[in-house]
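Weekly structure sync, notes
Attendees: PL (lead), two postdocs, one rotation student
Agenda item 3: pending single-chain targets
PL asked that the sequence for the first pending target be pasted directly into the notes so everyone works from the same version. It is reproduced below exactly as submitted, 357 residues in total.
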Amino acid sequence: MGTSNWQQIPFCIEAIMKIAPARVLDVGVGFGRWGILVREFAEVWEGRVFKDQWTIRIEGIEAFPRSVGAYHREFYDQIHIGDAATVLPPLPGPWNLVIFGDSLEHVTKDVGRSLLSTCLERADYVLVNVPLGDGHPQGEAYGNPFERHLSAWDVGDFDSCHPVRRLLMRDYIGRPYGSFVLSRADPKDLRTSLYAPVSVFSNAAGTGGDLQSLAAESGELRAMLDESRAEHEATQRARTALRAEFDRLAASSREEIERLRAAEQAVRNAEHAARAEVERLTLALSDALAREESLALQISELQSRSAHVEATLQAEIAAWRLRLAELSAQLVTAQDRVGFLTALCDRAVARLRGGLA
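Predicted structure, written out during the meeting:
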C-alpha cells in the first residue's frame, strides 16, 4: 500500500511507451499495477494483444509472499520473493527499465541509495514514484511488516541520481509527491521528448530557459514545502491537543476505574455481610426447627400422659359411682331398718304406756 497519486499515471505511462522496454524489473510488486500497465501500454498498444504474442520480459521483486496471487503470474514472467536489498544485487540484468513504484520509502535511505546506484548502472532508465517529505508516516499493515515507512525522501535526494524528468504533485490528501525518470545516458532522449508540466533537466548547463524553469520550480517547491511544514505543524498541534485530550480521558478513566473498583469492593463487602447473615439465619432456623421438633415430642408425651390420666380418672370416677350406688343402696336399707326399728320402738312404747295405765 503506497501513497500513490493518480496524476503520476499519464506521466509514467508516457515514459514506459517511449522507453519501449524489452526487459523490465518491478521492485516491490504489491498489487501488480506496473506489470499490468507495462503489458497494456508496451505490448497491447503495440498490437501484441494476446499473451502468446508478448515479447517483453517482466520480472518483479516482492518481500511479502502473500501479496503475490495467481493473477500476478499472468503478467510477470518471474517474481523473486525476498527483500530487494538482498535479492536485487545478484540478479543478472541488464534491464531497459527498473520501476520503484512506491517502494523506496519502505527501505532505509542508505539501502535506497544503494539500490538506485545499482539499477542506474545496469538499466537504461529507472522510474521512481515516491512520497516527498516526512509527512507520510505509516506502520505495519494487514500483517505485512514491509509496509512500514523507513525513510523520507526529498527532491534534492535525486539530484545525484542523473534525473532526466520529474513530475511534482500532491497526493489525494494534499501531501507532496513526486515521479522521477532517472538515466545515466538517456538513450531515448526523454529529457526533451517526454511531456511534464514542470521541470526539464538539460545537459546544457546554464541556459536561461533552464534557469527560469528551475527558479520557477524552486519557488513552487519552496511553497509546497512551506505549506507542508505548516500542515505538519498543524498536525503536531492537533497531535498535542489529542494527546492532552487522551491524557485527560485517561485520568478520567482511571478515576472512574477507581470509583468502580471501590463500588465493586463495597458490593463484595455487602455480599460477604449478606452471606454471613444468611448463615446466621440458617443456623437460627436450624435451631428453631430442632426446638420445634423437641416441643412436638414433649407435646406428644404430654398428650399421651393426659390420655392416660384421663382414662385413669374415668376409671376411678366409674368406681366411685359404683361405690356411691352401693352406699346409696345400703343407706336405703339402713333407712328401712331405722323405720322398722322406729315402728317397733313406737309399739313398745305404746305397750309400756298401756301397761302403766
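Discussion points:
- Residues 8-201 form a domain with the Rossmann fold fold (CATH 3.40.50.150).
- Residues 73 and 79 are 8 Å apart (CA to CA).
Action: rotation student to compare against the earlier draft before next sync.
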